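Hello again, I could really use a second opinion on something today. For a while now I've been wondering how a particular protein folds. Please have a think about how the structure follows from the sequence. Here's the protein in full, and shout if anything looks odd to you:

***
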Amino acid sequence: MKVTVCTLCVLVCAWSLSASGQTESPSTPVEIELLAAASLTDALEECIKEFSLIDRDSTIRAVYGSSGTLRRQIEQGAPADLFISAAPRFIDELEHAGMLVAGSRVNLLKNTLVLVVPGDSAGISALEDLASASVERIALGDPASVPAGQYALEALKWSSIDHLVMQKAVLAKDVRQVLAWVETGAVDAGFVYSTDALMGKGVRVASECPPESYPVILYPAALVSTGSVKPEARRFLSWLGGPEARAIFRRHGFGVP
C-alpha cells in the first residue's frame, strides 16, 4: 500500500509541474571575467581548475596580458569582474577613476626580478655585463605598459647602465614574450620575474637583480565595478587569498605578502 501511495504522489507532482510549465533543470553557472597579468598564467590556470571543483555555481574565463594593456581595456569597457595586476600603479589608476569595488582591493602576491640568458650562453653573470659590446640584444617588457619592464628599467638606472642597455633594448608586449625570446636565442638576455624563470625551457638565471634596485613587486587584485558585482567573483577573490590557492602560488614560486 505504501508503494502505491508514494507512486501516486510522484505521478501527481510530475503532472502538476508539467501542467504549470515548470520543470526542474540545473542552473547555468555564472561566468566570471578575470583579467590578469601574463606572469600569473600557469599558477592561475591551476587555481581556476581547483576552484571549479569546489564551486559549481561559476565558471571563470581568464584573459592574460600586460597589466597596462588590461587596465586600458577595462577603461574602454571590456568585460571584467576581477583584475589582478603585476604592479600597484594600474590598480591605483582604476581606483582613482572609481572603477573598482570599494574595499575589495588586496595585495595578493609578490615576486622578484631576474636576468635570464639562454642556457648555453656564457659571459653574462651580472647586470653590468649587459654594457659589454658582445651583448647585442636585451629584451624587456615595454615600460609603458609592462610592469616587469618598468622594474627592469629601475634596476638599470640603479646600476647606471640604463643609457647603454636601452640602446640595445628589444621591447616586448609582456613578460612571457621576453621569456620566449630568450628561450629561442633571439636575444642575448632578458628581464623576467623569478617565477617565469622557473618555468622557462633552456634558460638560466644569470643574475638576480638586487632588491634595493627596484620597487617591491606586488600583485594587487580587486573587483571591477563597471557592471553588476557578482557574488561568485567575490568568492573567487576570497578563495585566492586562502590556504589552498596560496599553496598553489608558492609551488609556482610566488611569495605571499
Summary: The chain has two domains: 30-110+218-251, 113-208. The radius of gyration is 24 Å. Strands lie at 30-37, 58-65, 82-84, 106-111, 113-118, 138-141, 169-172, 189-193, 203-208, 217-223. The first helix runs from residue 2 to 20.
